Amino acid sequence: MKLPTTGIIWMNGEFISWQDAKLHVLSHVVHYGTSWFEGIRAYHTKRGTAIFRLPEHIRRWERSMKIYHTTLPYTGHEMEEVCKEVLRRNNLSAGYIRPIAWRGYGEMGISPLGCPVEVAVAAWELGAYLGEAAERGADVCISSWNRLPPNTMPALAKAGGNYMNAQLMKMEALRNGYDEALTLDVDGNVSEASGANVFVVYDGVLYTPPVADSLLLGITRDTVLTLARDLLIDIRETLIPRGMIHIADEIFLAGTAMEINWVRSVDKQPVGNGTQGEITKKLKTRMADITHDGIDPYNWLSFVS
Ligand SMILES: Cc1ncc(COP(=O)(O)O)c(C=O)c1O
User: Fold this and answer.
1) Residue ranges around ligand 1 (CB below 6 Å)
2) How far apart are the CA of 106 and the centre of ligand 1, in A?
3) Number of domains composing the chain
4) What is the per-residue pLDDT for 2?
5) Which residue, 91, 95, 137, 249, has fewest beta-carbon neighbours within 10 Å?
6) Is 282 marked active-site?
7) Averaged over 76-95, what is the pLDDT?
8) pTM higher than 0.85, yes or no?
9) Which domain holds residue 208?
10) Do 175 and 138 fall within a single domain?
11) Which residue out of 158, 163, 224, 300 has the highest number of ligand 1 atoms within 8 Å of its CB and is therefore the one to mutate?
12) Same domain as 178, residue 99
């Protein structure tokens, strides 16, 4: 994800230039990873620019902070309007929106409570997250790093510090020539990818790990489950043992940046017959109806103008 060098960022209530969006080196977040963020996509649909599932993202953002006894100093509605305005001010008809809140400069020490809550929203253009692997299918590995067990750091919070674990997975995958990593929970069941949820098709049934399996409750995960239910696909939210990954008919990753990306191999072994599966294709088509054609039966699009 290459960042631009110019543009407008909203920070603590003001629209400022890209270069001026700075924070102090002694901010709590720099030392202790104290941040909560979202990743949201806007699409250039046939009916105009629309942000996908904006209220759900803002709600999850607030919930991520709640786990850490922190409140967003703006209403959800205000933040939704800021997201739209950031797109407009950067002349983006599609792109990736990054709202982030953090504990700033105040006190130094483990407790963040004496440090102010600061907030920013930026946006930029974003193509396929895994580049050419979007078309050809992703080559993934099973990471040697486990996902965070539930009573260590809550995976349900989209918190900056959690991504130290994800970075280890991702770097290991890239170093070994893979596009992405799947990670296991401490018991050896498949949890998620470094920045996306995972789905497995086995004998026509769509499986995904349950909420308690050390994962982020992805909004795309919910989207996929909703679309699958309406396509009358049999769904199971259940533990997926590692072995199932090797005998799956189809595997795909699902996330806002990732969208739906099929997996062609795991640890160098082809998934199914090594081509994109039918259930994956059906779900991608239903997604495109919404994000490309602007057909919106679920009320998931927030139009920007
Ligand atoms: C660790 C992790 N899991 C899952 C997801 C997918 O979540 P969503 O579909 O809400 O983007 C993300 C992306 O934000 C992520 O970082």
Assistant:
1) 39, 166, 192, 195-197, 216, 218-221, 255-256
2) 31
3) 2
4) 84
5) 91
6) no
7) 98
8) yes
9) 133-291
10) yes
11) 158
12) no
